[in-house]
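Appendix B, record 7
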Amino acid sequence: LTNNVGSSSAILSGNWIGNELLVGEADSYDGNLILTGTNKLNKLTILDGTTTTTGTGKISDSTSKTIVKMYAGKLILSNAETLDSISVNQGALFVSNNALSVDNTISNDGQLIVNTGTFEDDIINNGQFANGGNIVVNADIINDSIVDSTTALWNQIGTISADNITNNGTWQQQNNITLTSGLTNDGIWYSGQ
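Structure tokens (predicted):
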């Protein structure tokens, strides 16, 4: 969906399988794409605009494991999803309002909000990350991988279980953390417990 000047809305109600869905055009699309089908996309690329799932709508399932790449815009997922990987650029917003599973790396330079989830590879946050519910990271969490930056913010509302946490940014802890290996804090750590 590209070449839209100004706002527009589209509803995709069918079940889209395979290939890539490309939404928007860099900084010129401010419309809405609503996905209501149980899709199995190989890749979802968002250049701009707002993409949402609603009703029983999904972008992936446990067999398709969608790659999500966001250059800008918003992606708001309403249902449980199983993804391959997530990459969120500065200025983009990713929201998961249900259980989220990701097999490979999550790289966030924008805003990423998850409810609950299980993540099998590293989470690298150089933007703003919030977990509203409990998450399990079977790898490492790196909050602010940019040396001497301290611009990354992690807002931890739910519990976290992870191998290691390296914090070079700002971490706001509001619940328990369980680590199998270690914690390195060279940033700012607030504990609200």
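Remarks on this record: The mean pLDDT is 92. Residues 16 and 39 are 5 Å apart (CA to CA).
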